[in-house]
Specification:
The chain is of the alpha+beta class and about 400 residues long. It is built from 13 helices and twelve strands. The chain has a five-stranded antiparallel β-sheet, with no helix packed on it. The protein has a four-stranded mixed β-sheet with strand order 10-9-7-11, with helices on one face. Strands 4-5-8 form a three-stranded mixed β-sheet. The protein is globular and about 65 Å long.
């Protein structure tokens, strides 16, 4: 099948002229931007070359911005209002990663082509840094350098114009901003105890998202859903014995969602590339330290797998209150250990050649669990480790954390 025809320059000129009848001042102001758009649709231009050159940089932020630019360009070439509007969204995301006046001109020119007035024509200004979303209360506008130690990550967070820490109004859950970016998902062949389903590949996180600072607690669950189903009771303990279906119902009741698997690993790593996002013993509750006495869970598993669970339980290993171990470099607690965490995705092989943050979904089947739990050895708590379970299964070492897209 042949590709759809490209819109002609004349068609664009007519479109702009029609938009100009109701907003001629805006149309004139963006005329130069529209000319840039025509080059964007038709072929190579200085802007395209500029973006391509920046995409080849080793800097992850620039790589991600370049990927978004290319996706926007491909959509714009296909034409049609839906594709152009999606291209505008992608360019918005690109600009949060790497401000660029030429890309901003292009984005604004596309807005004219689809008949959208500019913020100035609407009498609006850009949102002030830290302006809170309607569904949440701002706790901290700017990332705390003592928590978010990576200056580049703080800059990417600030570039979104969104507050760093907010509290969801309906559940009281505190959520932290995760900025757009790019990372290597999975584990290298050299990583100890890895599995073949952890194939390394690049992932682009195109849009900022909020992720709960901790796993959902029993207090938060009871506030929204009623009594706690958990085995190990405690208001500040993570809720457990909840199935994927249960978690989806919780999210639907609060306007939240589960993170995609890519979002989860991106947030867990917080810019790191090793098996763990830091020192596991200081960051995680796992079988070695969640009981009355220290254990060597990996050695126990190899020595006596039949009695492993009994030995762990007899030692008093269990879930622990959240926020008791050290957070990762983005301020997120218990991404390793305490309870396993459901994510949105079906369990499937990773896409070869990379992908985006979008969740892989299939009807029925198993869903992915991440992070390891209080009863696991260190290897199951690795950032890349993937487990799975059926949609309706619930266990005393499985909980979740929630995400939300800004807006």
């Amino acid at each position: 099948m042949s590709p759809p025809p490209r819109p002609s320059v004349r068609a664009f000129s007519l479109r702009v002229r029609c938009a100009g009848q109701s907003a001629s001042r805006g149309a004139r102001r963006f005329l130069s931007s529209v000319l840039v758009c025509l080059a964007f649709f038709g072929g190579p231009s200085p802007l395209v070359c500029h973006a391509g050159a920046q995409q080849s940089s080793s800097d992850a932020t620039k790589d991600a911005a370049g990927v978004l630019f290319d996706e926007a360009r491909a959509l714009a070439r296909e034409g049609g209002d839906a594709n152009l509007r999606r291209a505008i969204e992608l360019l918005d995301s690109s600009l949060t990663l790497r401000p660029d006046p030429e890309v901003e001109k292009l984005r604004d020119g596309l807005r004219i082509l689809v008949g959208e007035p500019s913020p100035a024509d609407r009498g609006e200004s850009k949102p002030s840094a830290g302006a809170g979303p309607s569904w949440a209360t701002v706790v901290a506008r700017d990332p705390d350098p003592a928590v978010v130690t990576d200056a580049a990550a703080r800059a990417r967070m600030a570039a979104t114009g969104l507050p760093w820490k907010v509290r969801d109004n309906k559940t009281g859950i505190v959520m932290l901003l995760c900025p757009p970016g790019e990372f290597t998902m999975g584990s290298p062949a050299s990583e100890a105890d890895r599995y073949g389903v952890e194939l390394q590949h690049r992932r682009v996180i195109r849009q900022a998202f909020y992720l709960s600072e901790t796993e959902v607690t029993q207090e938060a669950w009871e506030k929204l859903m009623g009594g706690s189903p958990s085995c190990f009771k405690g208001a500040a303990n993570p809720v457990e014995q909840v199935s994927w279906n249960d978690c989806v119902r919780f999210c639907a009741s609060a306007g939240l969602r589960l993170p995609s698997e890519a979002e989860w690993e991106y947030a867990c790593r917080a810019g790191t590339t090793g098996a763990y996002a830091g020192d596991l013993a200081s960051m995680a509750w796992f079988a070695d330290n969640s009981g009355r006495k220290p254990l060597d869970a990996e050695a126990l598993w190899k020595r006596d797998v039949v009695n492993y669970e009994k030995t762990v339980l007899d030692n008093g290993c269990q879930s622990r209150p959240v926020r008791q171990r050290k957070p990762n470099a983005w301020g997120l607690y218990d991404m390793h250990g305490n309870v396993w965490e459901w994510v949105e995705d079906s369990h499937a092989e990773y896409p070869k050649g990379g992908g985006t943050e979008e969740a892989a979904r299939a009807e029925g089947g198993a869903r992915v669990l991440r992070g390891g739990g209080w009863g696991d050895g260190a290897s199951n708590c690795r950032a890349a480790f993937r487990a799975r379970d059926a949609l309706g299964d619930a266990h005393y070492d499985v909980g979740f954390r929630v995400a939300r897209t800004p807006g």
